[in-house]
TrEMBL record, chains A, B:
<feature type="domain" description="Aminotransferase class I/classII large">
    <location>
        <begin position="109"/>
        <end position="493"/>
    </location>
</feature>
<keyword id="KW-0812">Transmembrane</keyword>
<dbReference type="Pfam" id="PF00155">
    <property type="entry name" value="Aminotran_1_2"/>
</dbReference>
<keyword id="KW-0663">Pyridoxal phosphate</keyword>
<dbReference type="GO" id="GO:0004069">
    <property type="term" value="F:L-aspartate:2-oxoglutarate aminotransferase activity"/>
</dbReference>
<keyword id="KW-0472">Membrane</keyword>
<dbReference type="GO" id="GO:0030170">
    <property type="term" value="F:pyridoxal phosphate binding"/>
</dbReference>
<feature type="compositionally biased region" description="Polar residues">
    <location>
        <begin position="48"/>
        <end position="60"/>
    </location>
</feature>
<keyword id="KW-1133">Transmembrane helix</keyword>
<dbReference type="InterPro" id="IPR004838">
    <property type="entry name" value="NHTrfase_class1_PyrdxlP-BS"/>
</dbReference>
<protein>
    <recommendedName>
        <fullName>Aminotransferase class I/classII large domain-containing protein</fullName>
    </recommendedName>
</protein>
<dbReference type="InterPro" id="IPR015421">
    <property type="entry name" value="PyrdxlP-dep_Trfase_major"/>
</dbReference>
<feature type="region of interest" description="Disordered">
    <location>
        <begin position="40"/>
        <end position="60"/>
    </location>
</feature>
<dbReference type="GO" id="GO:0008793">
    <property type="term" value="F:aromatic-amino-acid transaminase activity"/>
</dbReference>
<dbReference type="GO" id="GO:0016847">
    <property type="term" value="F:1-aminocyclopropane-1-carboxylate synthase activity"/>
</dbReference>
<feature type="transmembrane region" description="Helical">
    <location>
        <begin position="15"/>
        <end position="35"/>
    </location>
</feature>
<dbReference type="InterPro" id="IPR015422">
    <property type="entry name" value="PyrdxlP-dep_Trfase_small"/>
</dbReference>
């Protein structure tokens, strides 16, 4: 077939001009009209398709699918079962959870980063202080405590007292080298909404954040569910112990630009989740320099900051790096924190946005109408976080006990010939099970995940779920395990390994 | 100017065909190209505009606005001060709040729908039960309560016990004619996120909900802040006591369609906010029939269902109407409820989504990661809502005390010659202050709003903020007032009226 292009006519003289441009122009014109009609169906096509009649009962009987009302297109994927192995694993555990007394053959949970290591201390504190923390007595109230101090509306961003308590606590667990200003703080009902609200404020629909991978699988839901922001993995390798480099960031940014995607920021967790390594001051400085050069935001998720157990490991907050040098525009730095990990209180839904950007703080405060922390919880946390003697005792025990459990778990794996990445923080370790793979590929890894779940009855999160490009890595959370569970796990893995080789 | 349309040539013969179609076709073709180039700027324009240099400090010094990082375009309007008189009024009260002891000249708050009427009862219950409600003892735990029952992760949609307790409570306060199935329920951290999550699930960006006006000004933030859904007011009039009619809905729907907007549902509050009228069974039936005919959703905000005080008023839930007849596809019906109003516990952030649509429930459960109710709050509410003796006592007192306060407030206004709309529920009344307007217009109403705030020192919400088309109406919330405050308010309004006429 001969293609006639519009400008062909120009070089072919007058006759060519007509023949060369008329036909394709007309075709193009009517094609546009045709496509336009197809692309935008008449508004409310749902309802116009329905015959207008007053005898509705004949059309809409119970259970009749004709005319059944539809949910939004953005709700459709959310209504489906999860496809990430991370969530599949969590769901599977619920069907048959291990219990060392009542269900010794159940699935052992290594997929959820929660800690029960210091429940004895929390139990003691709550028994002694819970009531007083919530009951504020007032001279104006007859014969009892001031119910208005927990029942009434309070500023959605959190009471000043709770922000002061969080600021002190964060400074304390982050080594005391950084101070936090309560006026730069918005209290949220969990780290998850803190992250979503920040994302909403920093990037528009269709923009992206760079994110060093492997990364925590929950970020996909936190960021992508509602904000329309993309996450672009910046692949890190075992040879660097999965630490991000500026050249990898640069490469990912350039690739995104080529694809026409605007990158609005870098998101990362420190201590990193799932690897557990702690970013050095130099790495943080390099990330911030890169962000400054590209004029993008930095979101540092520091929710495991107080769960650092390595002997010679020092946690440094991005807030400290931003404040330490006058070279940086601090307003691009945003910290996410919460008490689900370091204080083992995920049930309390306690999170913080810490930002140096006034507009982000103003917008986040307004958005807190959707995720504000209930006042009774604020009251408990004001008391708990301000009890510095308890906090010192708790944090020392928390770190010591993670370290001990980590040692037990990693030693157990080592005896099976299974190594872990070097780590110094977090409630998990990053385990190299590549020796157990039948094929060194994503497929092989997912087969191992399935075998771990159904044969060994262990739920560990495969690297694929974390966008790791090297197959065979698994995240194993160990801080909700009793010491006596660890030999059980090792025995199960040993048997799986033996059956694979035989 | 002579317009040459492509098909003109057809009727003008061969010469006309060339002249008639060639020129506009070419123009159209190049216009398309031109517009396409203008519409999509090069990606990452922010960062490409910055000179690449390693000497960052010269470019980005502290406080230097060059290269200052920007927030998302959707955060920009949120970071600005509010422009709705509703929020302006609330902010102004904070600067100089009335206190009958310490600041008798301060601004009296009639803008916030909260109640302190039964704080004596709540105080008693909390003093006696708060501790036990949170402390679950377990045989497995040595010497104390089971901290895991409040500290650990729980299903984001709420524990089964809290959903059962909510279902029983809702059925009870809604007259016992309707039962709620806990499995159709998602517990949320407040009515506000319940509404936003529903909106997200039912409509897409650019779609709209019809909403009878005047409506509660907070809906604008609840729905529009993040979902991108429009609210189309369906104007109701004082002649119908501001009750919506099907013909008004039909008209608004047709108008929306003409504008090319897809209407996904109808949102309304019952008892209505700000008017306080209670929708009859017939009206609810008509709304649901209309929604069925148009195949759209119905969102019924029933957060004031237990605050009905009219002698002969009966509250009917949309859930009851949907369930009562086999004619309706129930899956289009969604109820929002919460404890901020009926139980006077806004500080607890307790809300519910009740839906008959499986996909909506599945999606909402996943979205609860952003707005789940903290477990300690769930524990308190399980005890509180299950204490049926207390709930009966509380609800009877709550209704009686609203009725008495309403009588005092409305009588006070009546003596000043200021009438109110007929109402039977809610923590407010809808006051016709048109006699105080200097001009019968929106401008006149806003002038009166400002005079009330700065001269009379009263914050009442003007109808404009509620999209009321008749000027002069104000919403006045009276349930946080002491009896002795009411003469103070009346005196202030009287003086304002006198100074206006003199």
């Amino acid at each position: 077939m001969r293609l006639i292009v519009p400008l062909q006519g120009v070089v072919q003289g007058r006759g060519g001009l007509f023949v060369g441009s008329l036909i394709p122009c007309c075709l193009f014109y009517f094609l546009q009209l045709y496509l336009k009609r197809r692309r935008s169906p008449p508004p409310d096509s749902d309802s116009t398709e329905l015959p207008r009649t007053s005898s509705r009962s004949s059309l809409f009987t119970r259970g009749n699918s004709i005319g059944r009302v539809r949910v939004s297109s953005r709700a459709v994927p959310l209504a489906k079962p999860p496809d990430s192995p991370y969530y599949i694993g969590l769901e599977r555990v619920k069907t048959d959870p291990y219990d060392r007394v009542s269900n010794r053959d159940g699935i052992i949970q290594l997929g959820l980063a929660e800690s029960t290591l210091c429940f004895d201390l929390l139990q003691r504190w709550m028994s002694e202080n819970l009531m007083d923390s919530m009951m504020h007595y007032s001279d104006d109230v007859d014969g009892g405590f001031d119910i208005s101090s927990i029942a009434m509306y309070q500023p959605f961003e959190g009471l000043l007292e709770v922000r002061v308590a969080f600021a002190d606590f964060m400074s304390r667990i982050m080594g005391g080298n950084v101070s936090f200003d309560p006026s730069n703080m918005v209290i949220t009902a969990g780290g998850t909404p803190a992250l979503e609200v920040l994302a909403f404020c920093l990037a528009d629909h269709g923009n992206a954040f760079l994110i060093p991978s492997p990364y925590y699988p929950g970020f996909d839901r936190d960021i992508k569910f509602r904000t329309g922001i993309e996450l672009i993995p910046v692949h890190c390798r075992s040879s660097d112990n999965f630490t991000v480099t500026v050249s990898a960031l640069e490469q990912a940014l350039n690739l995104a630009r080529k694809r026409g995607i605007k990158v609005s920021g870098i998101l990362f967790s420190n201590p990193s989740n799932p690897v557990g390594n702690i970013l050095s001051r130099e790495t943080l400085h390099a990330i911030l320099s890169f962000a400054q050069e590209k004029n993008i935001h930095v979101i540092s998720d520091e929710i495991f900051a107080g769960s650092v157990y390595g002997e010679d490991k020092e946690f440094v907050s991005m807030a400290e790096v931003a404040a330490a040098s006058g070279d940086f525009d601090k307003s691009r730095v945003h910290i996410v924190y919460g008490l689900s990990k370091d204080l083992s209180l995920p049930g309390f839904r306690a999170g913080v946005i810490y930002s140096f950007h006034e507009d982000v703080l103003s917008a986040a405060k307004k958005l807190m109408r959707f995720s504000s922390m209930p006042v009774p919880v604020q009251r408990i946390l004001i008391s708990l976080l301000s009890d510095t003697r308890f906090i010192e005792e708790y944090m020392a025990a928390h770190r010591r006990r993670i370290r001990d459990k980590h040692f037990l778990f990693v030693e157990g794996l080592k005896q099976l010939g299974i190594p872990c990445a070097e780590s110094g923080g977090g409630l998990y370790c990053w385990v190299d099970m590549s020796s157990l793979l039948t094929s060194y590929s994503e497929k092989g890894e997912l087969e191992l995940f399935e075998k771990l779940l159904s044969v060994a009855k262990i739920n560990a999160t495969p690297g694929t779920a974390c966008y790791c490009i090297e197959p065979g890595w698994f995240r194993c959370c160990f801080t909700a395990l009793a010491d006596e569970d660890i030999p059980v796990i090792m025995e199960r893995i040993k048997r799986l390994a033996e059956s694979s080789t035989s």
